[in-house]
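Checklist before submission:
- one chain only
- standard amino acids only
- sequence pasted in full

Submission:
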Amino acid sequence: MSQIGIVVGLIAESDCLKEIGRAGLASVRCAGADARRAYALASDLAGEGCVALASIGVAGGLDPSLCSGDVVLADGIAGTGGVLRTNAVWHARAHTFLQGRTRLIVGTIAGAEAAVGAAETKRRIHRETGAVAIDMESLAVGTAAQALGLPFLAIRVIADTANHRMPAWLPGIIDEAGAVRPAAFCRGVLKRPQDVADIIRLAAANRQALVSLRRVAAFLGAGLGFL
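Returned file contents:
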């Protein structure tokens, strides 16, 4: 029985954690970039016997000093109800595994129910919350962990930076399994060919983030610093 439940948003993120899953100490579920599904999956993992929950994957940058590939080890997740804190002991162990091996930033991650693509919106959220990054799963997983009384950890790698622009239609190409829908992508490009340059930049940033995420998974090992 797996002891750690991990929720990611995309299939590509899940692929980066394959070795962790194969070790049998953790179970990985993909929410398809949907906050409500992330909460349900986290609850399901707890019901299956997981004794700790984690949100691991890529994120959007809010702090303009962060670059694609930078690793954010969250000390808390900012939501409308305040900041939900990650487990201090687990956080400290993960910090020990990662410090000095990657560009590591400790800070707050903002939770979002929809993708945030506009640079001006990212700047506003950073100003209002002090969060350094934003994603769609961490708050949901953390909320589930808090409700269930389980330790929670969030580690996110920056993909699109604070200055990257994400076309508004792009998040809609992700299906429930966390994979890209090719037909939807093609329709979006045909309707908005002026977005191609932004998409190319985002693709490069995402590749860099996934490379970093694989390294994070290798550094943490199968127990993610918890076991």
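Reviewer check: The first strand starts at residue 4 and ends at 8.
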